[in-house]
Design brief:
With 147 residues, the chain is α/β, with parallel strands linked by helices. The protein has one domain. The chain has helices at 15-33, 85-88, 93-117, 124-146; strands at 6-12, 46-53, 64-71, 76-83. Strands 1-2-4-3 form a four-stranded mixed sheet. Helix 1 packs across helix 4 (124-146) and helix 3 (93-117) packs antiparallel against helix 4 (124-146).
């Protein structure tokens, strides 16, 4: 059983994208850790987001959410969130945060379908409510730091 209902890891494609996305990764991770859950549904314990930022060394063929992998043993699902170069280069922190937040929320219905296909269930509204709390805090923190 996961100790945190949402987790976040990152895979960055170069130092250029590290510089652009690191504040987002750190803030988002901090706000996701504040969440608790009594469970998201039958059998699912963790939603693990992987932020994949394309950069000068490596690019990922993903724009927004994709690549859903269910681990029935761990009762978890991993969800990739792709951030192509065009989504961060020359963009403000607010624009990047909006893209990441929208991508994470948009991933939940497809994650639910994938879980259902594997015999697990998730309560989409419960997940969305919890996730929106973290995303609101993340976006507010970045906006505050921009001033």
């Amino acid at each position: 059983m996961a100790s945190e209902p949402f987790t976040l890891s990152g895979h960055m494609g170069g130092e250029d994208v590290d510089d652009a996305l690191l504040p987002h990764f750190q803030s988002l991770k901090r706000h996701l850790r504040l969440l608790t859950s009594n469970g998201f549904g039958v059998g699912i314990q963790e939603l693990a987001f992987i932020l994949r930022g394309s950069g000068s060394v490596r690019t990922f063929d993903l724009d927004g959410p994709g690549c859903f992998v269910v681990n029935k043993k761990d009762k978890s699902i991993s969800i990739d969130i792709g951030v192509p170069i065009a989504r961060w280069r020359g963009k403000s922190n607010e624009e990047i945060a909006i893209f990441i937040a929208r991508s994470m929320i948009a991933s939940i219905p497809d994650a639910a379908k994938e879980l259902e296909r594997k015999g697990l269930a998730v309560e989409v509204e419960v997940v969305n409510r919890s996730l929106r709390k973290a995303l609101d805090g993340y976006q507010a923190e970045l906006a505050e730091n921009a001033n």
